[in-house]
Amino acid sequence: MAGIVGWLDFDRDLSNRRDVVRAMAGAVANRGPDGESVWASGPVALGHRRIAGEDPEGQQPYCVSEDGRPVVAITFDGELFNATALRGQLLARGCVLRGGGTAELVAQAYLIFGDRVAEQLDGIFAFALWDARQERLLLVRDQIGIKPLYYQMVGGGVVFGSEPKAIFAHPLTPAAVDEDGLREVIGFAGTPGHAVFRNMHKVPGGSVTTVHRRGVTTRAFWQLEAREHTEDLDGTVDRVHGLLEEAIAKRLTDDPSLAIMLSGGLDSSLVTALATRIARERGNGQLRTISVDFATHARNAERADGNADASFAAVVAEHLGTDHTDIELDRDELWDPVTRDAAMRAMPDVPLPVGEMSNSIHMFFEAVGRRADITMMGEWSDTIFGEFLHIDKPEVVAAETLPWVAAGQYFVRNSGIGTGLFDTDLLKRLDIPGYCADQYRTQLAKVPHVAGADPQERRMREICYLYLQGWMEMGLAQDDGLTANNGLRLRVPFVEPELVQYAFNMPWSLKTHGGRSKSILRRLGRQVLPDEILDRPKNPFPSTPDVRHAEALRDALQEVLADREAPIAPYLNREAATAQLADLDRLAGGWQGRADIEMMLQTNAWLARYGIRVLL
Q1: How far apart are CA 492 and CA 114, in angstroms?
Q2: Which of 326, 376, 421, 469 is least enclosed, having the fewest CB within 10 Å?
Q3: How many CA atoms lie within 13 A of 37 on its CB side?
Q4: Buried b (16+ CB within 10 A) or exposed e, 300-328
Q5: Dihedral of CA 245/249/254/258: which sign?
Q6: Is residue 90's pLDDT more than 90?
Q7: What is the model's pTM?
Protein backbone atom coordinates (compact mmCIF):
# COMPACT_ATOMS: atom_id res chain seq x y z
CA MET A 1 0.00 0.00 0.00
CA ALA A 2 1.33 3.41 -0.94
CA GLY A 3 0.28 6.75 -2.36
CA ILE A 4 1.62 7.62 -5.80
CA VAL A 5 1.31 11.01 -7.51
CA GLY A 6 2.91 12.95 -10.32
CA TRP A 7 2.87 15.73 -12.86
CA LEU A 8 4.05 15.69 -16.47
CA ASP A 9 4.18 18.85 -18.55
CA PHE A 10 6.08 18.80 -21.84
CA ASP A 11 6.10 22.62 -21.88
CA ARG A 12 7.70 23.15 -18.46
CA ASP A 13 10.79 22.28 -16.48
CA LEU A 14 9.38 20.82 -13.27
CA SER A 15 12.70 20.46 -11.50
CA ASN A 16 11.84 23.45 -9.34
CA ARG A 17 8.15 22.53 -8.80
CA ARG A 18 8.65 19.80 -6.23
CA ASP A 19 6.43 21.78 -3.86
CA VAL A 20 3.38 21.08 -6.01
CA VAL A 21 4.01 17.34 -6.14
CA ARG A 22 4.80 17.29 -2.44
CA ALA A 23 1.39 18.85 -1.75
CA MET A 24 -0.23 16.21 -3.95
CA ALA A 25 1.57 13.47 -2.02
CA GLY A 26 0.45 15.03 1.24
CA ALA A 27 -3.16 14.73 0.13
CA VAL A 28 -2.80 10.92 0.15
CA ALA A 29 -0.63 10.71 3.26
CA ASN A 30 -3.20 8.29 4.68
CA ARG A 31 -1.95 5.72 2.17
CA GLY A 32 1.65 6.08 3.34
CA PRO A 33 2.05 7.83 6.69
CA ASP A 34 5.67 6.79 7.27
CA GLY A 35 7.62 8.53 4.54
CA GLU A 36 7.51 10.85 1.55
CA SER A 37 9.82 11.39 -1.42
CA VAL A 38 9.73 13.42 -4.61
CA TRP A 39 11.83 12.96 -7.73
CA ALA A 40 11.89 15.55 -10.53
CA SER A 41 13.77 15.93 -13.78
CA GLY A 42 12.90 18.07 -16.79
CA PRO A 43 9.19 17.81 -17.66
CA VAL A 44 8.23 15.26 -15.01
CA ALA A 45 7.95 15.06 -11.23
CA LEU A 46 6.95 11.93 -9.33
CA GLY A 47 5.92 11.59 -5.69
CA HIS A 48 5.56 8.67 -3.32
CA ARG A 49 4.10 8.11 0.15
CA ARG A 50 5.16 4.91 1.87
CA ILE A 51 4.10 2.79 4.82
CA ALA A 52 6.65 1.14 7.08
CA GLY A 53 7.19 -2.58 6.54
CA GLU A 54 6.12 -2.76 2.91
CA ASP A 55 8.96 -3.44 0.47
CA PRO A 56 11.61 -2.41 3.06
CA GLU A 57 14.46 -2.56 0.54
CA GLY A 58 12.79 -0.23 -1.93
CA GLN A 59 13.25 3.52 -2.05
CA GLN A 60 10.81 5.43 -4.21
CA PRO A 61 10.47 7.08 -6.60
CA TYR A 62 13.15 4.88 -8.14
CA CYS A 63 15.35 6.01 -11.04
CA VAL A 64 17.58 4.06 -13.42
CA SER A 65 20.34 6.30 -14.75
CA GLU A 66 23.10 6.05 -17.34
CA ASP A 67 26.06 8.43 -17.38
CA GLY A 68 24.32 10.54 -14.76
CA ARG A 69 21.18 10.97 -16.84
CA PRO A 70 17.79 9.46 -15.97
CA VAL A 71 16.60 6.67 -18.24
CA VAL A 72 13.52 5.38 -16.40
CA ALA A 73 11.84 6.61 -13.22
CA ILE A 74 8.93 4.93 -11.43
CA THR A 75 6.57 5.36 -8.50
CA PHE A 76 4.82 2.10 -7.54
CA ASP A 77 1.92 1.08 -5.30
CA GLY A 78 1.25 -2.56 -4.46
CA GLU A 79 3.12 -5.84 -4.41
CA LEU A 80 4.25 -8.52 -6.85
CA PHE A 81 3.57 -12.17 -6.13
CA ASN A 82 6.11 -13.23 -8.74
CA ALA A 83 8.91 -10.95 -7.51
CA THR A 84 11.29 -13.84 -6.88
CA ALA A 85 10.72 -15.38 -10.30
CA LEU A 86 10.98 -11.99 -12.00
CA ARG A 87 14.22 -11.22 -10.19
CA GLY A 88 15.68 -14.51 -11.38
CA GLN A 89 14.55 -13.83 -14.93
CA LEU A 90 16.19 -10.40 -14.89
CA LEU A 91 19.43 -11.70 -13.45
CA ALA A 92 19.53 -14.41 -16.11
CA ARG A 93 19.32 -11.68 -18.73
CA GLY A 94 22.31 -9.88 -17.24
CA CYS A 95 20.56 -7.17 -15.23
CA VAL A 96 22.46 -5.73 -12.31
CA LEU A 97 20.04 -5.18 -9.41
CA ARG A 98 21.03 -2.72 -6.71
CA GLY A 99 18.53 -3.53 -3.96
CA GLY A 100 15.84 -1.11 -5.07
CA GLY A 101 12.99 -3.44 -4.21
CA THR A 102 9.85 -3.94 -6.27
CA ALA A 103 10.09 -0.61 -8.07
CA GLU A 104 13.56 -1.51 -9.35
CA LEU A 105 12.30 -4.88 -10.61
CA VAL A 106 9.53 -3.23 -12.61
CA ALA A 107 11.83 -0.54 -13.98
CA GLN A 108 14.40 -3.11 -15.12
CA ALA A 109 11.68 -5.33 -16.54
CA TYR A 110 10.47 -2.36 -18.59
CA LEU A 111 13.96 -1.88 -20.02
CA ILE A 112 13.79 -5.47 -21.30
CA PHE A 113 10.11 -5.94 -22.20
CA GLY A 114 9.10 -2.36 -23.03
CA ASP A 115 5.38 -1.96 -23.71
CA ARG A 116 4.75 -5.56 -22.64
CA VAL A 117 6.07 -5.08 -19.13
CA ALA A 118 2.62 -5.31 -17.54
CA GLU A 119 2.15 -8.81 -18.95
CA GLN A 120 5.19 -9.95 -16.93
CA LEU A 121 3.73 -8.84 -13.59
CA ASP A 122 1.63 -10.97 -11.25
CA GLY A 123 0.26 -9.04 -8.32
CA ILE A 124 -1.82 -6.08 -7.25
CA PHE A 125 -0.36 -2.81 -8.45
CA ALA A 126 -0.68 0.63 -9.89
CA PHE A 127 2.37 2.51 -11.10
CA ALA A 128 3.56 5.42 -13.17
CA LEU A 129 6.74 4.99 -15.21
CA TRP A 130 8.55 7.79 -17.03
CA ASP A 131 10.68 6.81 -20.04
CA ALA A 132 13.08 9.70 -20.53
CA ARG A 133 14.44 8.27 -23.79
CA GLN A 134 11.06 8.16 -25.53
CA GLU A 135 9.58 11.03 -23.51
CA ARG A 136 6.44 9.17 -22.49
CA LEU A 137 4.64 8.31 -19.27
CA LEU A 138 3.02 4.92 -18.66
CA LEU A 139 0.14 4.67 -16.17
CA VAL A 140 -0.52 1.00 -15.38
CA ARG A 141 -3.13 -0.79 -13.28
CA ASP A 142 -3.27 -4.48 -12.31
CA GLN A 143 -5.40 -7.00 -14.19
CA ILE A 144 -8.57 -6.72 -12.09
CA GLY A 145 -8.04 -3.14 -10.92
CA ILE A 146 -7.53 -3.73 -7.21
CA LYS A 147 -5.19 -0.74 -6.94
CA PRO A 148 -6.62 2.61 -8.11
CA LEU A 149 -5.04 5.21 -10.41
CA TYR A 150 -6.62 8.45 -11.67
CA TYR A 151 -5.39 11.07 -14.13
CA GLN A 152 -6.40 14.38 -15.64
CA MET A 153 -5.01 16.10 -18.71
CA VAL A 154 -3.88 19.65 -18.00
CA GLY A 155 -1.68 22.16 -19.83
CA GLY A 156 1.04 20.37 -21.72
CA GLY A 157 0.64 17.04 -20.00
CA VAL A 158 -1.10 15.18 -17.20
CA VAL A 159 -1.57 15.11 -13.43
CA PHE A 160 -2.16 11.74 -11.75
CA GLY A 161 -2.62 10.16 -8.34
CA SER A 162 -3.85 7.18 -6.35
CA GLU A 163 -6.98 9.11 -5.41
CA PRO A 164 -8.81 12.13 -6.82
CA LYS A 165 -7.88 14.20 -3.77
CA ALA A 166 -4.23 14.08 -4.91
CA ILE A 167 -5.20 15.62 -8.26
CA PHE A 168 -7.27 18.32 -6.55
CA ALA A 169 -4.15 19.34 -4.60
CA HIS A 170 -2.62 20.53 -7.87
CA PRO A 171 -3.33 24.25 -8.50
CA LEU A 172 -4.38 23.69 -12.13
CA THR A 173 -6.97 20.98 -11.46
CA PRO A 174 -9.81 22.29 -9.26
CA ALA A 175 -12.59 19.89 -8.40
CA ALA A 176 -15.67 20.07 -10.63
CA VAL A 177 -18.48 17.74 -11.57
CA ASP A 178 -20.81 18.04 -14.57
CA GLU A 179 -24.12 16.42 -15.48
CA ASP A 180 -22.56 13.10 -16.47
CA GLY A 181 -20.60 13.03 -13.23
CA LEU A 182 -23.78 13.56 -11.22
CA ARG A 183 -25.52 10.88 -13.25
CA GLU A 184 -22.68 8.49 -12.50
CA VAL A 185 -22.83 9.19 -8.77
CA ILE A 186 -26.58 9.35 -8.29
CA GLY A 187 -27.22 6.46 -10.66
CA PHE A 188 -24.67 4.21 -8.94
CA ALA A 189 -23.57 3.20 -12.43
CA GLY A 190 -19.94 2.17 -11.86
CA THR A 191 -18.95 2.80 -15.49
CA PRO A 192 -15.42 1.39 -16.03
CA GLY A 193 -12.86 4.18 -16.49
CA HIS A 194 -15.30 6.89 -15.36
CA ALA A 195 -13.80 8.98 -12.56
CA VAL A 196 -16.98 11.04 -11.87
CA PHE A 197 -15.14 14.38 -11.83
CA ARG A 198 -15.04 16.63 -14.88
CA ASN A 199 -12.10 15.90 -17.23
CA MET A 200 -10.79 13.21 -14.87
CA HIS A 201 -10.28 9.58 -15.89
CA LYS A 202 -9.55 6.32 -14.14
CA VAL A 203 -7.05 3.95 -15.71
CA PRO A 204 -9.13 0.82 -16.43
CA GLY A 205 -8.10 -2.37 -14.69
CA GLY A 206 -5.74 -4.46 -16.82
CA SER A 207 -4.72 -1.46 -18.93
CA VAL A 208 -1.74 0.71 -19.79
CA THR A 209 -2.43 4.38 -20.49
CA THR A 210 0.44 6.07 -22.31
CA VAL A 211 0.90 9.85 -22.36
CA HIS A 212 3.23 11.34 -24.95
CA ARG A 213 3.52 14.58 -26.89
CA ARG A 214 1.03 13.34 -29.48
CA GLY A 215 -1.68 12.63 -26.95
CA VAL A 216 -2.99 9.73 -24.87
CA THR A 217 -3.61 6.08 -25.76
CA THR A 218 -4.94 3.21 -23.65
CA ARG A 219 -4.26 -0.48 -24.29
CA ALA A 220 -5.77 -3.43 -22.45
CA PHE A 221 -3.20 -6.07 -21.52
CA TRP A 222 -5.76 -8.28 -19.74
CA GLN A 223 -9.51 -8.70 -20.16
CA LEU A 224 -12.27 -11.22 -19.71
CA GLU A 225 -12.36 -13.68 -22.59
CA ALA A 226 -14.89 -16.23 -23.83
CA ARG A 227 -13.52 -19.73 -23.28
CA GLU A 228 -15.37 -23.00 -23.64
CA HIS A 229 -15.91 -24.75 -20.30
CA THR A 230 -15.04 -28.43 -20.71
CA GLU A 231 -15.00 -29.85 -17.14
CA ASP A 232 -17.93 -31.66 -15.54
CA LEU A 233 -19.13 -30.85 -12.02
CA ASP A 234 -16.41 -32.75 -10.17
CA GLY A 235 -13.74 -31.48 -12.56
CA THR A 236 -14.94 -27.92 -12.04
CA VAL A 237 -14.76 -28.27 -8.26
CA ASP A 238 -11.22 -29.64 -8.55
CA ARG A 239 -10.17 -26.83 -10.86
CA VAL A 240 -11.61 -24.14 -8.58
CA HIS A 241 -9.91 -25.84 -5.64
CA GLY A 242 -6.55 -25.69 -7.41
CA LEU A 243 -6.92 -22.10 -8.58
CA LEU A 244 -8.07 -20.83 -5.18
CA GLU A 245 -5.30 -22.68 -3.39
CA GLU A 246 -2.72 -21.18 -5.77
CA ALA A 247 -4.18 -17.71 -5.20
CA ILE A 248 -4.01 -18.10 -1.42
CA ALA A 249 -0.48 -19.51 -1.56
CA LYS A 250 0.71 -16.41 -3.44
CA ARG A 251 -0.75 -14.11 -0.82
CA LEU A 252 0.18 -16.07 2.29
CA THR A 253 3.45 -15.14 3.95
CA ASP A 254 5.06 -16.04 7.25
CA ASP A 255 4.79 -12.37 8.27
CA PRO A 256 3.44 -12.41 11.86
CA SER A 257 1.49 -9.22 11.14
CA LEU A 258 -0.86 -11.12 8.77
CA ALA A 259 -4.33 -12.06 10.01
CA ILE A 260 -7.30 -13.53 8.17
CA MET A 261 -10.67 -11.85 8.69
CA LEU A 262 -12.90 -14.79 9.61
CA SER A 263 -16.67 -14.26 9.82
CA GLY A 264 -17.60 -17.92 9.93
CA GLY A 265 -19.33 -17.63 6.56
CA LEU A 266 -18.58 -19.91 3.64
CA ASP A 267 -16.10 -17.65 1.87
CA SER A 268 -13.83 -16.55 4.72
CA SER A 269 -13.97 -20.05 6.25
CA LEU A 270 -12.91 -21.63 2.97
CA VAL A 271 -9.99 -19.19 2.61
CA THR A 272 -8.96 -19.89 6.20
CA ALA A 273 -9.11 -23.67 5.74
CA LEU A 274 -6.97 -23.67 2.61
CA ALA A 275 -4.54 -21.11 4.08
CA THR A 276 -4.14 -23.24 7.21
CA ARG A 277 -3.29 -26.29 5.13
CA ILE A 278 -0.71 -24.33 3.12
CA ALA A 279 0.85 -22.82 6.25
CA ARG A 280 1.23 -26.24 7.84
CA GLU A 281 2.81 -27.70 4.72
CA ARG A 282 5.31 -24.83 4.74
CA GLY A 283 5.97 -25.25 8.45
CA ASN A 284 4.89 -21.66 9.11
CA GLY A 285 3.02 -22.48 12.29
CA GLN A 286 -0.33 -21.25 13.54
CA LEU A 287 -2.30 -18.70 11.53
CA ARG A 288 -4.02 -15.75 13.17
CA THR A 289 -7.73 -15.13 12.55
CA ILE A 290 -9.88 -12.20 13.64
CA SER A 291 -13.66 -11.96 13.91
CA VAL A 292 -15.27 -8.52 14.21
CA ASP A 293 -18.89 -7.71 15.01
CA PHE A 294 -21.04 -5.22 16.87
CA ALA A 295 -21.87 -6.48 20.34
CA THR A 296 -25.61 -5.81 20.15
CA HIS A 297 -25.86 -7.28 16.65
CA ALA A 298 -24.18 -10.48 17.79
CA ARG A 299 -26.45 -10.84 20.81
CA ASN A 300 -29.59 -10.10 18.79
CA ALA A 301 -28.59 -12.64 16.13
CA GLU A 302 -27.94 -15.28 18.76
CA ARG A 303 -31.37 -14.73 20.28
CA ALA A 304 -33.16 -14.66 16.94
CA ASP A 305 -31.71 -17.57 14.99
CA GLY A 306 -28.28 -18.46 16.35
CA ASN A 307 -26.67 -16.91 13.27
CA ALA A 308 -24.12 -14.60 14.89
CA ASP A 309 -20.79 -14.48 13.08
CA ALA A 310 -18.70 -14.88 16.23
CA SER A 311 -20.16 -18.28 17.15
CA PHE A 312 -19.55 -19.70 13.66
CA ALA A 313 -16.09 -18.14 13.46
CA ALA A 314 -15.24 -19.86 16.76
CA VAL A 315 -16.33 -23.21 15.29
CA VAL A 316 -14.05 -22.74 12.29
CA ALA A 317 -11.14 -21.49 14.40
CA GLU A 318 -11.38 -24.50 16.71
CA HIS A 319 -11.77 -26.91 13.79
CA LEU A 320 -8.67 -25.52 12.05
CA GLY A 321 -6.61 -24.67 15.14
CA THR A 322 -6.05 -20.97 14.41
CA ASP A 323 -4.96 -18.33 16.91
CA HIS A 324 -8.33 -16.60 17.05
CA THR A 325 -9.42 -13.22 18.38
CA ASP A 326 -13.00 -11.98 18.71
CA ILE A 327 -13.51 -8.23 18.60
CA GLU A 328 -16.79 -6.65 19.69
CA LEU A 329 -17.41 -3.05 18.70
CA ASP A 330 -19.70 -0.51 20.31
CA ARG A 331 -22.46 0.27 17.84
CA ASP A 332 -22.97 3.71 19.39
CA GLU A 333 -19.74 4.78 17.66
CA LEU A 334 -21.51 4.46 14.31
CA TRP A 335 -23.33 7.74 14.88
CA ASP A 336 -20.24 9.55 16.18
CA PRO A 337 -19.47 12.47 13.80
CA VAL A 338 -15.75 11.61 13.97
CA THR A 339 -16.46 8.08 12.74
CA ARG A 340 -18.71 9.33 9.95
CA ASP A 341 -16.14 11.88 8.83
CA ALA A 342 -13.29 9.35 8.90
CA ALA A 343 -15.32 6.87 6.87
CA MET A 344 -16.24 9.48 4.26
CA ARG A 345 -12.64 10.65 3.96
CA ALA A 346 -11.49 7.07 3.46
CA MET A 347 -13.94 6.44 0.65
CA PRO A 348 -12.94 6.85 -3.01
CA ASP A 349 -14.12 10.46 -3.12
CA VAL A 350 -17.73 9.79 -4.10
CA PRO A 351 -20.88 9.83 -1.95
CA LEU A 352 -22.76 6.57 -1.36
CA PRO A 353 -26.30 5.87 -0.11
CA VAL A 354 -25.04 3.27 2.37
CA GLY A 355 -23.40 5.47 4.98
CA GLU A 356 -24.11 3.06 7.82
CA MET A 357 -22.38 0.28 5.91
CA SER A 358 -19.38 2.48 5.10
CA ASN A 359 -19.11 3.47 8.75
CA SER A 360 -19.34 -0.17 9.81
CA ILE A 361 -16.66 -1.34 7.37
CA HIS A 362 -14.42 1.53 8.45
CA MET A 363 -14.79 0.49 12.09
CA PHE A 364 -14.12 -3.14 11.19
CA PHE A 365 -10.91 -2.34 9.32
CA GLU A 366 -9.84 0.12 12.00
CA ALA A 367 -10.16 -2.62 14.62
CA VAL A 368 -8.23 -5.13 12.50
CA GLY A 369 -5.60 -2.51 11.64
CA ARG A 370 -4.78 -2.11 15.33
CA ARG A 371 -3.83 -5.79 15.44
CA ALA A 372 -2.45 -6.56 11.97
CA ASP A 373 -0.64 -4.93 9.06
CA ILE A 374 -1.84 -7.41 6.42
CA THR A 375 -5.27 -8.98 6.19
CA MET A 376 -6.69 -11.67 3.93
CA MET A 377 -10.43 -11.84 3.24
CA GLY A 378 -12.98 -14.00 1.46
CA GLU A 379 -14.46 -10.92 -0.19
CA TRP A 380 -15.96 -10.90 -3.70
CA SER A 381 -16.79 -14.58 -4.12
CA ASP A 382 -20.47 -13.60 -4.39
CA THR A 383 -19.78 -11.52 -7.48
CA ILE A 384 -17.33 -13.98 -9.01
CA PHE A 385 -19.53 -17.03 -8.46
CA GLY A 386 -22.87 -15.42 -9.26
CA GLU A 387 -24.68 -14.73 -6.00
CA PHE A 388 -26.39 -11.51 -7.08
CA LEU A 389 -29.15 -9.56 -5.38
CA HIS A 390 -32.63 -10.64 -6.54
CA ILE A 391 -31.18 -12.69 -9.39
CA ASP A 392 -33.97 -15.20 -8.78
CA LYS A 393 -36.52 -12.65 -10.06
CA PRO A 394 -37.17 -12.96 -13.83
CA GLU A 395 -37.85 -9.23 -14.15
CA VAL A 396 -34.37 -8.41 -12.79
CA VAL A 397 -32.74 -10.83 -15.22
CA ALA A 398 -34.72 -9.41 -18.14
CA ALA A 399 -34.32 -5.73 -17.25
CA GLU A 400 -32.60 -3.61 -19.88
CA THR A 401 -30.49 -1.70 -17.39
CA LEU A 402 -27.60 -2.39 -15.05
CA PRO A 403 -28.62 -5.47 -13.05
CA TRP A 404 -27.87 -3.97 -9.61
CA VAL A 405 -29.98 -0.96 -10.57
CA ALA A 406 -32.81 -3.32 -11.57
CA ALA A 407 -32.43 -5.18 -8.27
CA GLY A 408 -32.40 -1.88 -6.41
CA GLN A 409 -35.86 -1.04 -7.67
CA TYR A 410 -37.16 -3.34 -4.94
CA PHE A 411 -35.93 -0.81 -2.39
CA VAL A 412 -36.76 2.50 -4.09
CA ARG A 413 -39.74 4.44 -5.31
CA ASN A 414 -37.96 7.01 -7.43
CA SER A 415 -35.34 7.37 -10.14
CA GLY A 416 -32.35 5.89 -8.32
CA ILE A 417 -30.97 4.45 -5.11
CA GLY A 418 -30.97 7.16 -2.45
CA THR A 419 -32.31 9.97 -4.68
CA GLY A 420 -35.53 10.73 -2.80
CA LEU A 421 -34.36 14.09 -1.43
CA PHE A 422 -32.90 15.51 -4.63
CA ASP A 423 -34.74 18.27 -6.45
CA THR A 424 -37.32 16.81 -8.83
CA ASP A 425 -36.39 19.17 -11.67
CA LEU A 426 -32.74 18.15 -11.30
CA LEU A 427 -33.65 14.46 -11.42
CA LYS A 428 -35.77 15.03 -14.50
CA ARG A 429 -32.90 16.86 -16.20
CA LEU A 430 -30.37 14.17 -15.31
CA ASP A 431 -32.67 11.28 -16.34
CA ILE A 432 -30.89 8.70 -14.22
CA PRO A 433 -32.85 5.72 -15.58
CA GLY A 434 -31.97 6.74 -19.14
CA TYR A 435 -28.30 7.18 -18.23
CA CYS A 436 -28.09 3.75 -16.58
CA ALA A 437 -29.82 2.17 -19.57
CA ASP A 438 -27.31 3.84 -21.91
CA GLN A 439 -24.35 2.59 -19.86
CA TYR A 440 -25.91 -0.86 -19.80
CA ARG A 441 -26.15 -0.99 -23.59
CA THR A 442 -22.58 0.26 -24.00
CA GLN A 443 -21.16 -2.40 -21.68
CA LEU A 444 -23.44 -5.12 -23.06
CA ALA A 445 -21.85 -4.68 -26.51
CA LYS A 446 -18.47 -5.64 -25.00
CA VAL A 447 -19.51 -9.00 -23.54
CA PRO A 448 -17.51 -11.90 -25.05
CA HIS A 449 -19.77 -14.86 -25.83
CA VAL A 450 -19.26 -18.56 -26.47
CA ALA A 451 -20.76 -19.78 -29.73
CA GLY A 452 -23.82 -21.98 -29.41
CA ALA A 453 -24.81 -21.04 -25.85
CA ASP A 454 -28.53 -21.23 -25.13
CA PRO A 455 -30.39 -17.96 -24.37
CA GLN A 456 -30.40 -18.47 -20.59
CA GLU A 457 -26.67 -19.13 -20.42
CA ARG A 458 -26.00 -16.22 -22.76
CA ARG A 459 -28.05 -13.85 -20.62
CA MET A 460 -26.45 -14.91 -17.34
CA ARG A 461 -22.99 -14.49 -18.90
CA GLU A 462 -23.99 -10.89 -19.69
CA ILE A 463 -25.09 -10.24 -16.12
CA CYS A 464 -21.91 -11.79 -14.73
CA TYR A 465 -19.81 -9.60 -17.03
CA LEU A 466 -21.62 -6.44 -15.96
CA TYR A 467 -21.11 -7.23 -12.30
CA LEU A 468 -17.43 -8.07 -12.79
CA GLN A 469 -16.79 -4.87 -14.73
CA GLY A 470 -18.93 -2.27 -12.96
CA TRP A 471 -20.14 -3.47 -9.58
CA MET A 472 -16.79 -4.91 -8.55
CA GLU A 473 -14.96 -1.76 -9.71
CA MET A 474 -17.05 0.32 -7.30
CA GLY A 475 -16.58 -2.13 -4.45
CA LEU A 476 -12.83 -2.59 -4.92
CA ALA A 477 -12.40 1.19 -4.72
CA GLN A 478 -14.23 1.16 -1.39
CA ASP A 479 -12.14 -1.74 -0.07
CA ASP A 480 -8.90 -0.05 -1.10
CA GLY A 481 -9.84 3.30 0.40
CA LEU A 482 -11.04 1.94 3.72
CA THR A 483 -8.11 -0.45 4.24
CA ALA A 484 -5.51 2.09 3.11
CA ASN A 485 -6.94 4.65 5.54
CA ASN A 486 -6.44 2.19 8.37
CA GLY A 487 -2.90 1.11 7.51
CA LEU A 488 -3.94 -2.32 6.22
CA ARG A 489 -2.54 -4.13 3.19
CA LEU A 490 -5.47 -6.07 1.77
CA ARG A 491 -5.18 -9.45 0.06
CA VAL A 492 -8.25 -10.95 -1.60
CA PRO A 493 -7.50 -14.38 -3.12
CA PHE A 494 -10.89 -14.73 -4.84
CA VAL A 495 -9.92 -11.73 -6.99
CA GLU A 496 -7.23 -13.71 -8.79
CA PRO A 497 -7.23 -13.09 -12.55
CA GLU A 498 -7.17 -16.73 -13.64
CA LEU A 499 -9.84 -17.70 -11.09
CA VAL A 500 -12.04 -14.79 -12.19
CA GLN A 501 -11.53 -15.80 -15.82
CA TYR A 502 -12.40 -19.43 -15.10
CA ALA A 503 -15.51 -18.57 -13.06
CA PHE A 504 -16.71 -16.12 -15.73
CA ASN A 505 -16.76 -18.95 -18.27
CA MET A 506 -18.38 -21.44 -15.91
CA PRO A 507 -21.94 -22.24 -17.05
CA TRP A 508 -24.69 -20.78 -14.90
CA SER A 509 -26.12 -24.28 -14.49
CA LEU A 510 -22.92 -25.26 -12.65
CA LYS A 511 -22.77 -22.10 -10.55
CA THR A 512 -26.29 -22.86 -9.32
CA HIS A 513 -26.11 -26.66 -9.32
CA GLY A 514 -28.73 -28.17 -7.04
CA GLY A 515 -30.68 -24.93 -6.94
CA ARG A 516 -28.24 -23.12 -4.62
CA SER A 517 -25.93 -20.23 -5.32
CA LYS A 518 -22.17 -20.76 -5.12
CA SER A 519 -22.74 -24.51 -5.28
CA ILE A 520 -19.17 -25.11 -6.50
CA LEU A 521 -17.75 -23.48 -3.37
CA ARG A 522 -20.17 -25.40 -1.17
CA ARG A 523 -19.04 -28.71 -2.67
CA LEU A 524 -15.43 -27.68 -2.16
CA GLY A 525 -16.21 -26.67 1.41
CA ARG A 526 -17.54 -30.16 2.16
CA GLN A 527 -13.96 -31.37 1.89
CA VAL A 528 -12.48 -29.01 4.48
CA LEU A 529 -15.19 -27.42 6.68
CA PRO A 530 -17.71 -28.55 9.31
CA ASP A 531 -21.26 -29.06 8.01
CA GLU A 532 -22.73 -26.33 10.20
CA ILE A 533 -20.70 -23.73 8.32
CA LEU A 534 -21.97 -24.93 4.96
CA ASP A 535 -25.58 -25.12 6.09
CA ARG A 536 -25.84 -21.83 7.99
CA PRO A 537 -28.09 -19.18 6.46
CA LYS A 538 -26.42 -16.17 4.89
CA ASN A 539 -25.91 -13.44 7.46
CA PRO A 540 -26.35 -9.99 5.92
CA PHE A 541 -23.86 -7.30 6.77
CA PRO A 542 -24.65 -5.79 10.20
CA SER A 543 -27.26 -3.10 9.58
CA THR A 544 -28.59 -0.61 12.07
CA PRO A 545 -32.27 0.12 11.41
CA ASP A 546 -33.01 1.42 14.89
CA VAL A 547 -34.23 4.63 16.50
CA ARG A 548 -30.77 5.90 17.48
CA HIS A 549 -29.53 5.76 13.92
CA ALA A 550 -32.71 7.36 12.64
CA GLU A 551 -32.37 10.15 15.21
CA ALA A 552 -28.75 10.79 14.21
CA LEU A 553 -29.73 11.02 10.54
CA ARG A 554 -32.69 13.25 11.29
CA ASP A 555 -30.56 15.64 13.36
CA ALA A 556 -27.92 15.83 10.64
CA LEU A 557 -30.53 16.50 7.96
CA GLN A 558 -32.10 19.16 10.14
CA GLU A 559 -28.75 20.96 10.29
CA VAL A 560 -28.45 20.90 6.50
CA LEU A 561 -31.98 22.25 6.06
CA ALA A 562 -31.23 25.07 8.48
CA ASP A 563 -28.08 26.05 6.56
CA ARG A 564 -29.18 27.99 3.48
CA GLU A 565 -25.51 28.18 2.40
CA ALA A 566 -25.02 24.40 2.46
CA PRO A 567 -23.48 23.19 -0.82
CA ILE A 568 -26.41 20.83 -1.34
CA ALA A 569 -29.06 23.52 -0.82
CA PRO A 570 -29.64 24.31 -4.53
CA TYR A 571 -30.19 20.62 -5.31
CA LEU A 572 -32.40 19.72 -2.36
CA ASN A 573 -36.09 18.82 -2.42
CA ARG A 574 -36.97 20.68 0.76
CA GLU A 575 -40.55 19.45 0.85
CA ALA A 576 -39.47 15.80 0.73
CA ALA A 577 -36.69 16.42 3.24
CA THR A 578 -39.06 18.09 5.67
CA ALA A 579 -41.42 15.12 5.37
CA GLN A 580 -38.55 12.76 6.19
CA LEU A 581 -37.86 14.66 9.40
CA ALA A 582 -41.36 13.89 10.65
CA ASP A 583 -41.21 10.19 9.82
CA LEU A 584 -38.88 8.76 12.45
CA ASP A 585 -40.64 5.38 12.61
CA ARG A 586 -40.12 4.73 8.90
CA LEU A 587 -36.51 5.87 9.13
CA ALA A 588 -35.89 3.45 11.97
CA GLY A 589 -37.33 0.49 10.10
CA GLY A 590 -37.04 1.26 6.40
CA TRP A 591 -33.90 1.15 4.30
CA GLN A 592 -35.00 3.59 1.62
CA GLY A 593 -35.68 6.52 3.93
CA ARG A 594 -32.26 6.13 5.51
CA ALA A 595 -30.60 5.74 2.12
CA ASP A 596 -32.18 9.00 0.93
CA ILE A 597 -30.79 10.92 3.91
CA GLU A 598 -27.40 9.20 3.81
CA MET A 599 -27.00 10.07 0.13
CA MET A 600 -27.98 13.68 0.72
CA LEU A 601 -25.65 14.08 3.71
CA GLN A 602 -22.74 12.43 1.95
CA THR A 603 -23.29 14.51 -1.18
CA ASN A 604 -23.29 17.69 0.91
CA ALA A 605 -20.04 16.67 2.64
CA TRP A 606 -18.55 15.62 -0.71
CA LEU A 607 -19.29 18.99 -2.32
CA ALA A 608 -17.96 20.87 0.71
CA ARG A 609 -14.79 18.86 1.21
CA TYR A 610 -13.13 19.93 -2.04
CA GLY A 611 -15.21 22.97 -2.87
CA ILE A 612 -16.57 21.07 -5.88
CA ARG A 613 -18.12 23.24 -8.56
CA VAL A 614 -21.30 21.77 -10.02
CA LEU A 615 -21.49 22.55 -13.73
CA LEU A 616 -25.06 22.23 -15.01
Answers
A1: 29
A2: 326
A3: 14
A4: ebeeeeebbbbbbbbbbbebbebebbbbb
A5: negative
A6: yes
A7: 0.95
